[in-house]
Amino acid sequence: MTNPNVSVMMPCYNSKLTLARAIASVILQSFEDWELVLVDDGSTDTPFEVVEAVADARIRYIRLERNRGRGFARQVALQQCRGSFLCMLDADDWMYPKRIEEEVEFLQRAQSVVVVSAGMAITRPSGQLTGIRSKGTGQIQGPFRSLHIPFAFPPSMIRMEAIGNARFDETLKRGQDADFILQVLRGRKFCVLDSVNYAYVEDERDAIVKSINSHPYVRARYRKHIRDFPALAPLAIVQSYFAESALRVGSRLNADGYLLDKRVKMPSMCEIELHREALRSVSELAERIMPSAFGSIGEW
What we know:
Blueprint: E1 6-12, H1 16-27, E2 34-41, H2 48-54, E3 59-64, H3 70-80, E4 85-88, E5 94-95, H4 99-109, E6 113-123, E7 129-133, E8 140-141, E9 157-159, H5 176-185, E10 189-201, H6 204-224, H7 232-252, H8 256-261, H9 269-289
Parallel strand pairs: 1-2, 1-4, 2-3, 6-10
Antiparallel strand pairs: 4-9, 5-10, 6-7, 6-9, 8-10
Helix pairs in contact: 1-9, 6-7
C-alpha cells in the first residue's frame, strides 16, 4: 500500500455532535490523496458511530481507553501519520474544500518553506461567521528566531521530513500546538497565505475564559525555552501576566464582546460568500452522514 500524500491529524474528545461536519470537510477536499488519523481520546459519546457511518477507508480510527489530554492524543496521531505533509483539524472545526490543495501546491512550489498557514474564519457553533483572524500576506518569511508564533496552528501544514524529533508535550494542557510548531520552525522559513481556508468554531460565552486559562500554560511553554531565549523568554512571561490580568479585568467589566472583536477583522463580501458556500456543502454532507447528530441545516 502506498503512503498518502497528506496526513490529517484529528484528536477527538466528546465531540460527536460536531464530528460529522469535521469529517465531511475532509471528504469534500478537492485534493483526494489524504488519510485522516482520528484519535479518540477516551470519549464517552461514541464517536466511532460517525466513523462507521462515513465508511471511508482513508479514515484511521484509534481509540484510547481513557482520556489522556490533547497533547498525548496529538502525539499518538503523529506517530501514526504516513504522509509527506501533515495538517491539523480539530473535531469541532471544519475546513474549506480547497484547503489541502492550496497548501500542498504552495509547499511543492516553495521547497525552502517548512510550514505554511492561512487565515481562519471565526464562527459560532451555528456556523455564523463573526470575523477573520490570522490571515497573512503570502510572502515567505524567516528564518524564524522568536518565541511568538506569528500564525494560527489549526490551518497550518508542515513538511513531515522537517518534524524530526519534535513532539507534542502532554504536560501542556493548552498550547502544546504552539510548542510543537516552535520546535519545528526554529531557524527555518514559513509562509502565511493571503486566504482563508479553515473555520475555527468559537463560543463567545467561554472564549475569554479559555484565553485567561491558557496563560499559565503559555508561561510554562516560555520557561521550557528560557535557555535558548535568555532575554526574550522572561520578558514574554511578564507580558503574559499582564495580558492575563487585562483579560480578567475586561471580563469583570462585561467587556467580553469588545475583547473578542479586537482579535478579529471584519470579513469582506468575498470572504462572506466563500464561507457561506463552504458551510452549505459541508453541512449537507454532514447531515447525510449523521442526521441524528443535529437538526436541519438551517439550525447550524
